[in-house]
Amino acid sequence: MTDLATLEAEITAQIAAAGDVAAIEAVRVSALGKSGSVSALLKTLGAMSPEERKERGAQINAVRDRVQTALAEKKAALETAELDARLASETLDLTLPAPYRRKGSVHPTMQTMDEMVSIFAEMGFAVAEGPDIEDDFHNFTALNFPEKHPAREMHDTFFFNPKETGERMLLRTHTSPVQVRTMLNQKPPIRIIAPGRTYRCDSDATHTPMFHQVEGLVIDKAIHMGHLKWTLETFLARFFETDAVTTRFRPHHFPFTEPSAETDVGCDRSGGEIKIGTGSDWLEILGCGMVHPNVLKACGIDPDEYQGFAFGMGVDRLGMLKYGMPDLRDMFASDSRWLGHYGFSAFSAPNLASGLS
Ligand code: DAH
């Protein structure tokens, strides 16, 4: 037997003996790999005379081709055998009881929004809506944000690419543009809330790029801050399902209200969790104020005849407070275990007669 025939017989025996795909790969490397036995023979061709090389080269290549084919066939056979073995062992018993199937639930944000809407509806507020994609006029200009004023940047606005006209649309940074749309389309008296999605380029434990707000607007003759205070206190007591709440109005600045205030609600933090309606601590909960005369004018309402109040609050934040969820980002992570735990039954719509939550 020539040395070549011996080598081929050896490799063929190794292929036959290989018991799994890893063993076949080891045989391939030892024969055809860079420093394999067949490759080593091919390297000897360089030192031969042309005639010798032609004859010997053809013989070595023929061996290499046969070895390659044998390797591929054995590998395919082993893979089929491995798959058959897996299919035989991984059986599914269809007679076993079905596993627990998670049911859909109402998201805590939607539940909170429904609760807020039902409380305000009972107080005589209608629900108004506006688009998520807004223009500069409704989101800023009509709300008395001065042109090129840093307050516009403060909102971390998501802008779209400019149109051919140069106008840049944006994702509304608050629900306040719905005030503008309502006043432009409706004569006073006005009493609306505007629940909806809002967007800012911000993300941490208490901020997400998309969140929800409820805006409120009341316009009539002889409206004053006393009405605002009563409305908010009544709402907060009902929302937190306590007899009464205490509030504190801190002077603040919003371009669209004058005077403006941030409202804190009295709470107790002593037990490690926040309890609303008792205690001597304060928790900031919303922004509000008397609608600025410039906003009324921009919306075609005479500020000498009408005035009103407005407020805006974060829905997700209020939901977290009421239902004890620590991280805002979880609200939008779509984790079905979280939704199963914090979600609400679709069959118990909140209303003041049968209870909110
Ligand atoms: N738009 C404000 C914000 O997103 C919230 C707000 C404050 C709304 C005062 C109002 C208001 O209507 O009067 O930060």
Number of strands: 10
Secondary structural class: alpha+beta
On the 0 to 100 scale, the average pLDDT is 91
Largest sheet: 8 strands, mixed
CATH level 3 topology of the largest domain: BirA Bifunctional Protein, domain 2
- N- to C-terminal distance: 90 Å
Tell me the name of the CATH homologous superfamily of the largest domain. Bira Bifunctional Protein, Domain 2
Radius of gyration: 37 Å
Q: Count structural domains.
A: 2
Instruction: Give unreliable regions as ranges.
Output: none
Helical fraction: 40-55%
H and E string: HHHHHEEHHEHEEHEEEEHEHH
Notable characteristics:
alpha+beta, single chain, 357 residues, 40% helix, two-stranded antiparallel ribbon, binds 3,4-dihydroxyphenylalanine, BirA Bifunctional Protein, domain 2
How would you describe the overall organization of this protein?
40% of the residues lie in helices and 19% in strands. The chain is α+β, with helices and mostly antiparallel strands. Strands 1, 4, 5, 6, 7, 8, 9 and 10 form an eight-stranded mixed β-sheet that branches. A two-stranded antiparallel ribbon has the order 2-3. Strand 6 and strand 7 form a beta hairpin. The longest helix has 40 residues, at 50-89. The protein is elongated, with a radius of gyration of 37 Å. Bound molecules: 3,4-dihydroxyphenylalanine (DAH).
